[in-house]
Amino acid sequence: MSLNPRIDNLGGHFILSQKVKVILRIKLNGAFTLIRRYYGAKCLRKELSLSRATTELKRVMKKQKYHQSFVAGWYDGLFSKRYRLLRKLLKYRMYYLALAVDVAIDKVKGLTWR
Question: How far is Cα 84 from Cα 18, in angstroms, rounded to an integer?
Fold first, then answer.
């Protein structure tokens, strides 16, 4: 199934079906969960280095085709500032910086993943 939107001939606007919008939202949630709860937590617990986590994250993102959902900026109003920033970084495939920002925010907040 292709997630590419059709472009309206009149105004150049994207036309997305509800099904595609739901899939994009699920992919965004999945990517954020991977970064925050899995790779970010492993980096905080020193189980995985940041560079190794970045390599694994790139592989997963490419395999599951998450990059298609990062251009969906119309969901930014639904997410917190942390996730907006992550989406914008991932849109340009800045995986290392996205993980580093996530880990830094967790350290500032004092979160410890056990």
Answer: 22
Percent of the chain beyond pLDDT 70? 87
Rounded to whole angstroms, the Cα distance separating 55 from 23 reads 25
With 70 as the cut, is the pLDDT of residue 14 above it?
A: no
b/e string for 58-77 if b means 16 or more Cβ within 10 A? eeebeeeebeebbebeebee
Mean per-residue pLDDT of the chain: 85
Measured CA to CA, the distance from residue 70 to residue 12 in angstroms comes to 20
Instruction: Categorise residue 80: left if φ over 0, alpha if ψ from -120 to 50, beta otherwise.
Output: beta
- Residue with the bigger pLDDT between 18 and 72: it is 18
The residue whose two tokens read 């790139």 is: 58
- Side chain identity at residue 19, one-letter code: K
pTM of the model: 0.81
- Residue found by looking up tokens 């189980």 in the block: 47
Could you tell me if 44 and 64 are in contact, meaning their C-beta atoms sit under 8 angstroms apart? Answer: no
